[in-house]
Structures are given as C-alpha cells and as structure tokens.
Design a protein that fits this description.
It contains 21 helices and eleven strands. With 518 residues, it is α/β, with parallel strands linked by helices. Bound molecules: adenosine-2'-monophosphate.
C-alpha cells in the first residue's frame, strides 16, 4: 500500500507520531466524527496503521455514517496542507530532542494562527521554551498532559492542556469530545466507549479544561504523575503490611482490596491491585506477584515532581519517598546481601485483632493518600503563585476523576472541597478531610507503630503521618535548628516577640553573649 497525496484542507486535525499513544488518540478523535490526518517519520508505520484500521472499523464509518476518518500523509508538507485552517497538529512523540525536531519541521510549513499541540510527556521547562519560540513565529502552542495510557488515549483520557489561551477554542471541541467522561452528579467515570461508539449521556462532564498559560498543563500533568507514584507506593505498603504481619495470601489480599474498592478508597489503582493479586502465574501456578522481580522502574516524572518541590522549598515528602522507594528497590543485589547481615526486630507474632488491623491499614491508606494529594496540590498552589497561572484546583481535581491512572472517588471529594473554598490553604484543612483524618488517625498511628515494631518498611505511610503532624504543629523544633545555624554560621534568627523580618544574632563567643540586631 502506498500513500496518495491527500486532498488539501480536508482534515479537521492531525496527529504526528504514530506509536501506540498517537494511533490510539487519532482513532479516538476519528470516532468522534473528525477527519484526522496522520503522519509518522517512518512511512511504513502510517501505512500499517491505515491497513489495520480500514474505513468502517472505527469512527463514524463504523456507525454507517460515512467513510473512516484517517488521512495518511507521507511527508510533513502533505500533512500540513491536508489540514483545514486554523490548522491543529497534535504531536505524540517521545519527549526530548525528537519533539523539537518535529516542531521545527511543522513550523516550517505552518502559518501564523496555526496550532501545535504537544501531547507528549514533556518537561514543563521545555514546554515554556517551545511556547516562547513558537509565539515569536506567530504560531500557537499548547502543551497538554495526556493521562490514561493506551486505553485512555483510545477511549477517553484525562487531558490537561495549557499554553496559548487563544488557541484553546480551536482545540476545545476535539479535546472535549475525546476526553473521558464522568457523571456530573456522582463524579464517577462513565464507561462504555468502544470503536465508533461514543459516550452520549446528558450528565457527562468531560475530563478536560484549559489549565493555564505557558507550561501550566504539563506542570499539572507532572504533579499528577507524582501523586500517582505516592498512591501506588502507599497501596504496596498496605499490601506488604497485611502480607507480612497477618500472613495473608495474595488471593486473600485480592479479596481485601476488592472489598476496599467499595469504600472511600474506590479507585482504578485499588481495582487493578485486587485483579493483580488474584492472578496466578501460568508457568509455575504461583501467585503472579511472587514471580515478578521486585525491582521497580521509573521514567522520571515522579523525580521531576520531587525536584520541583525541592527547588521551590514546598514539602512533598510522600511523593519523594515513593521515588526513593523505587530507587531502593532497584538495588536488588545489595538488598539481598544486606539481608544476610542486617537483622530486624524479633518480629513477635501479631497478637492484636486481625480484622481490626485490616481496617486500621485501610484507614491508614486513606489518610496517607489524602496527605499525598495535599502535597501535590500544595506544590501546584505555589507554582501557580510563582508563575501567575491562576490554577483552578476544583477544575483540576474534576478532570482527574476519570480517564487517568489516579482516578478515584477521593477526587470527587477534593473537587467539592475546592468548589466550597477555592483558596483552601491546605487540602487537609477542608472540613470534610479534617473530620475524616481525625476519625482515622488513631488507626493510622497504630499501623505506623506496628510497621516500625515489626520492621516492615513503610516510607510513604510514615512520611505522610510526619507531614500531617508537622503541619498541625504550631511550634516546631526549627527554633533550635535556627539557633544552631546562628551559633556556627551567624545565620541570624527572628524573635517570637519581634516583628517578622527583623533579624538578630547572638555573639556566641563573647562571655556575655550579647544580642545584636542584624
Ligand atoms: P518512528 O516510527 O519513525 O520511529 C515514538 O517514538 C514516536 O516518535 C514514533 O512515532 C517515532 O517515529 C517518533 N519519533 C522519534 N524520533 C523522531 C524524530 N526525530 N522525528 C520524528 N519522529 C520521531
């Protein structure tokens, strides 16, 4: 099969980069009645996609309303000329230099007013740079977070677009159409999208909204991933505690997680955890979770979130601990040799109430999860202030309720909390969460104490609890710390009884240690 030159100005939008995400997003767009130009550097990939998806197997054609909506384009010039104006070119390329190469080649052929959308996992610094460079050429740039993996891309992702606000009305109809849908009344995802079959429900709310200028969209997507790291690690710690302390089998734990999915923990990650724990390895008949090597990989977005929090001095310890937990897991050989040398506690048999412990772990998971979200939203709040993004947190929580990996009932509660008070100083201070954590904190503390006594590592649970306790401490030992800094480095201190911003220093080596105002 060879590609014919496309009819000029025949496509509503275009997708460049036809790896899994690009193909699925293009098919999703076509399903919603748009005609989509598709292009890939290696033409055989474009040809294979068209061969695999002939007209009538997806899109309006599937519903008998017309031909399939894909227009294959061999060259970038063909691709650009195939687009109706203002042109919308969506790129889904491996983040990094390749994205710049593709943007440059598109920019060569595009005209002022045309729109380039980067749907890859770009670092937000790169997005800022690209937005500026393109705007100088009169082109409009949108950096959009796309979450939900390949199934999300195909049948409804969560979409976090940011950048040129004037380009949004051009992209909005497409993004609204293809995004995941939730029921506005309950906040629960509406399932049922399939090839050629879209969600038609009068209560459907699309999981997308314009996030803010510049790199706001990619920043918010990065924080989403940071929260995802924490969420996954917390679930793993809950599993590990119940398995180690109560000696529950993976099959039994699958039932525990299934039951938890009917509580306030209701989420995609809990659901897949129950499914994974029930899986048996076909080769060995052992629980699948036991034959997977305990070394976790990472692509870097959790690290970016942690680095951003360190750079800004905003605490996100549970997210960072989740990244470190993956790091320590990767030192498998070191851990194996250390396990032969380093002893843990005697590990006395658990003598408490077993059912109570299961419930305690559930409550600990819920509280810790709220803390991880509080950290993520705290980070976004600070970034919003610093960059003048004017982020709308109710809207961000709202578009995370469906399509993305962290979709969860909790996000509906967070949406409501920010709708009630947009300038909430910290998520934990929303009345609903004040009460929820207060009711569960005894259980949470018992779990962290048990993990320490039994030697089960729970970096995320423990750091979340420390975050909560630090946050609710009107006075921290930082007074002593600042005194130490003044002692050895003359770094000065403020007094509790003097206005903020007035600094003092104690002349420590002097016998009388006089205080001087700095
Ligand atoms: P390819 O099929 O020609 O390799 C994910 O890697 C996607 O990014 C693929 O569609 C890949 O195209 C594309 N890609 C990677 N590097 C690229 C580059 N420098 N220019 C254009 N596309 C690139």
């Amino acid at each position: 099969m060879t590609l014919e030159s496309p009819k000029p100005a025949s496509a509503d939008a275009g997708v460049v980069g036809l790896a899994v995400m690009g193909q699925n997003l293009a098919l999703n767009i076509a399903d919603h009645g748009f005609s989509v130009a598709v292009h890939n550097r290696t033409t055989s990939v474009t040809e294979a996609m068209l061969a695999e998806h002939p007209a009538g197997t997806f899109g309006p054609g599937y519903r008998g309303k017309g031909p399939g909506g894909l227009v294959g384009c061999e060259s970038v010039a063909d691709f650009v000329s195939a687009l109706k104006r203002p042109r919308v070119a969506i790129i889904l390329i491996k983040a990094g230099k390749a994205t710049d190469a593709v943007i440059d080649s598109l920019a060569e052929h595009m005209e002022p007013g045309d729109v380039i959308v980067d749907g890859g996992n770009a670092h937000w610094d790169d997005t800022s740079r690209r937005a500026e460079a393109l705007s100088a050429k009169g082109l409009r740039f949108i950096g959009s977070g796309v979450s939900g993996g390949e199934t999300g891309a195909r049948f409804g992702p969560s979409l976090m677009p940011g950048g040129d606000r004037e380009a949004w009305p051009v992209l909005e109809p497409i993004w609204q159409a293809i995004a995941a849908k939730v029921d506005a009344r309950t906040g629960k995802p509406i399932e049922g999208a399939a090839p050629g079959k879209t969600v038609d429900d009068e209560n459907a709310e699309a999981c997308t909204a314009f996030i803010g200028p510049g790199s706001a969209g990619h920043y918010v997507k990065m924080v989403h991933n940071g929260i995802e790291y924490a969420d996954m690690q917390l679930i793993c710690e809950a599993y590990d505690l119940l398995r180690t302390v109560l000696e529950l089998s993976p099959a039994e734990l699958s039932d525990v997680f299934k039951a938890w999915d009917d509580t306030e923990l209701d989420s995609f990650l809990i659901e897949i955890t129950a499914d994974i724990l029930g899986q048996v390895d076909s080769k060995t008949s052992k629980p699948f979770v036991d034959i997977v090597l305990d070394r976790a990989g990472q692509k870097g977005t959790g690290k970016w979130t942690s680095v951003a929090s360190l750079d800004m001095g905003v605490p996100a310890p549970t997210i960072a601990e989740a990244v470190f937990a993956r790091a320590i897991s990767s030192f498998k050989d070191l851990r194996v040799s250390a396990s032969e040398v380093l002893d843990g506690p005697e590990s006395p048999e658990f003598e408490g109430d077993r059912a109570q412990f299961v419930e305690d772990v559930r409550q600990a998971l819920y509280c810790s999860k709220i803390c991880a979200y509080a950290q993520g939203f705290g980070l976004m709040a600070e970034a919003s202030k610093e960059n003048n993004w004017d982020l709308d947190f109710a809207e961000i929580a709202q578009i995370w309720r469906g399509g993305c990996i962290i979709r969860a009932a909790l996000l509906h509660e967070i949406t409501l909390a920010y709708r009630e008070r947009a300038d909430l100083p910290n998520l934990l201070m929303a009345p609903a969460f004040v009460e929820a954590v207060d009711n569960a904190q005894d259980a949470w503390r018992r779990v962290v104490a048990t993990s320490a006594l039994q030697g089960v590592p729970t970096p995320a649970f423990s750091s979340a609890l420390a975050y909560y306790d630090s946050l609710r401490s009107a006075r921290l030992p930082a007074s002593l710390l600042q005194a130490q800094r003044d002692y050895f480095g003359a770094h000065t201190y403020e007094r509790v009884d003097a206005p903020r911003g007035e600094f003092f220093h104690l002349d420590w080596p002097e016998k009388e240690r006089p205080e001087v105002q700095a």
